Amino acid sequence: MKQLIITVIGKDKTGLVEQLSDTVYNNGANWLKSSLTQLSGQFAGIVQVEVSAQHIQQLSSALSQIDGLQIHIVEAQIKASSQQIMQKLTVTGNDRLGIVKEVTTHLHQLGVNIYKLKTNTESAPNWGYPIFKAQFQLELPTDLCIDVVQEQLELLADDLTIDIEQ
User: Each residue of 87-121: pLDDT tens digit?
Assistant: First the structure.
C-alpha cells in the first residue's frame, strides 16, 4: 500500500467534498486525514489517502476528471518517529503587515518546525479594528526550551500576545 497526498483547489460549490470522497472510495483508496476549507469562494484542501500501487493511476485519472478542481498528487514521505517535542503556540495582536513573516523567521532561526498553522483576522469586539490570530502546532528540537521560544517571540512587538500551552 502507498500513501498519497492530494492537494485540491477550485471554485467552491455544494457537494464538492462528497464528490471528492466518492472518487477516492470508488477507486480503491482509503481516506486517512484531511484539512479542507473554503476561502473567499474557493475550496482548498489537502487529503492523505492510502491505496494499493495497482490503483494509483486509476485514482489519479478519476480525480483529474472532477470538474473545476485543480489536483496535485505526490507520494507521502513516511518518516520515522523523531525526538521532537510538540507544542501549541497562539499569537494574537492588532492586524498589520508582516506578522506571519516575523514569527516564522524567528521560529526557523531557532530550529523549530511548523507542524500546523491556522490564521484568522476578525473585528475586535467593541473596538472595530482587525485583530490577527495565529495558532501554531510546533515541533521543537529536544535541546530547545520552550521558554527561549517565548522570550524570542515576545521581542517581536509590544502589540503581540504570545501564549504557549504547556
Answer: 999 999 999 999 999 999 999 999 999 999 999 99
Contact call for residues 113 and 139 (beta carbons, < 8 A): yes
Strand partners, 88: 137, 165
Identify the pLDDT of residue 81.
59
Q: Is the predicted pLDDT of residue 83 greater than 70, yes or no?
A: no
Q: What global pTM score does this model have?
A: 0.82
159-164 contacts: CB < 8 A, separation 24 or more?
159/93, 159/94, 159/96, 160/91, 160/92, 160/93, 160/99, 161/90, 161/91, 161/92, 161/93, 162/89, 162/90, 162/91, 163/89, 163/90, 163/91, 163/92, 164/87, 164/88, 164/89, 164/90
DSSP 8-state symbol, 66: S
Convert 94-133 to b/e letters by CB count within 10 Å (16 or more is b).
eeeeebeebbeeebeeeebeeeeeeeeeeeeeeeeeeebb
Distance CA(101)–CA(107), nearest Å, equals 10
